[in-house]
Amino acid sequence: MSEHFDAIIIGAGQSGPFLAARLAEKNKKVALIEREHLGGTCVNDGCTPTKTLVASARAAWTARHAADYGVKLAGPVSVDMKAVKARKDKVVGASVQSLTDWIDGLKTLEFIKGQGAFHSPTEIRVGKRTLTAPQIFINTGASPIIPPWPGLNDVPYLTNSSMMDLDVLPGHLIIVGASYIALEFAQMYARFGSKVTVIAHGSRPASREDEDISDAIRSILEGEGVTFLFDTKVEAVARAGTGVLLSLKSGERRASVEGSHLLLAVGRTPNTADLNLRAAGLQVDDRGYIPVDDHLRTKVDGVWVMGDVNGRGAFTHTSYNDFEIVADNVIDGGKRSIAGRVPVYGLFIDPPLGRIGMSETEVRKSGRKAMMATMPMSKVARARERGETQGLMKVLVDADTRRILGAAILGIGGDEVVHSLLQLMAAGTPYTTMMETVHIHPTVTELLPTLFAGLKPLD
After folding, report:
1. pLDDT in tens, 57-74
2. Do 152-266 and 344-457 show the same overall fold?
């Protein structure tokens, strides 16, 4: 016998719980289904724990460089990885508990632990229960890709999730992949004291970025002892004592590398396999995502998809924005959509990268008349005063409208500074407005008008 709800939400990541709460506040009877834990990747093994670990790694780096600032410490700096993990667990635990207490306090919301799967377009089975509702929302997120390398199943390996359980310092951490997750862990563990080798299939790190940004990222990490092996494929994996041995191929050359720990960071895949989408009349696209329109509706009436699994964004902030859009449409009678949503994300190495809008490569491909300016962070007084002059700032604008097309701030405070430009983009305000505004000295943002003053036509 089916149990009736007003709405069913499968997945409790960065969209599901907030939508469930909004619906419950409207006295709707809501079922929130989650097979693992509240908060999804961000809270449990993504943003919250990794940025907590980044902070510990930053503290170790600062201590080791104290003499550069005239501060003397007695004895060598060491890192207690059990204490580092305990701090991370405490921060994560507090976040999960806060979310749990909030959800538990909503009277018309039932939290159900288990795997939800479609039985029909309006029915969900979880365990022995069958739930029905006129509105069903999917927020099941994504999981690490496990490559089909020979021997991989016979060796111990880590993903961004299982890495959260590590409480020892790897002697030699091998990371396969050179995108955002890989780069953050690479710098983090190099700062903790591990030898780190990054194996990349492509020719540069963070290949989504323009070459000058990638080159600067590489310089930052190599300066901290990270070794990169580019244009390299993993052919096989085997045990080597208590560690791992990777057989590699680069062009016609073959080699091997041995390490104490192996971290797989080759991408993520949407969690759709267990949803029985066919029963709902749905299917995934060629990348494994569930197709949606700009209002995040599927082709099946009454079914919406939010977060990583819809292929319209792979970040906590885009997932939360998905919730806001769906809530506006479903609850408030609005018409918000993802059309025109400005791409925005960060890479949280130290110093961080803040990225908005189009890259130089994308602007060139568009064929539009544009201008570009770049500036090394060594020109920024705040960076010099802090002794952290790595990186650069870069901005692209439309030559006719003077509106900002995109920007990259790789440097001290880059992940925060870039939001000043984001607001100009969202408002359609010309960059000249910022040039005519007085900014606080000494800050990073005060150099943005100077950056704009150096705009030149994009050849």
Report:
1. 999 999 999 999 999 998
2. no
- How far, in Å, CA of 404 to CA of 266, rounded? 32
Paired residues of 371 in beta bridges? 397, 457
Does the reported pTM lie above 0.70? yes
CATH number of 3-143+269-330, picked from 2.30.29.220, 3.40.50.720, 3.50.50.60, 2.60.120.260: 3.50.50.60
Predicted local distance difference test score (pLDDT) of residue 318 = 95
**Known catalytic membership, residue 201:** no
Cα–Cα distance between 239 and 42 in angstroms, integer? 32
Tokens 């919301």 locate to 109
Q: Which of 457, 440, 376 is nearest to 414 (CA)?
A: 376
As a whole number of angstroms, the distance between CA 298 and CA 277 comes to: 11
The order of strands in the sheet holding 129-132 is 3-4, 129-132, 123-126, 116-120
What residues have CB less than 8 Å from 324, skipping those under 6 apart?
336
| Sign of the dihedral through C-alpha 57, 62, 65, 71 | negative
Contact by Cβ (8 Å): 35, 113? yes
Tokens 């994996």 locate to 237
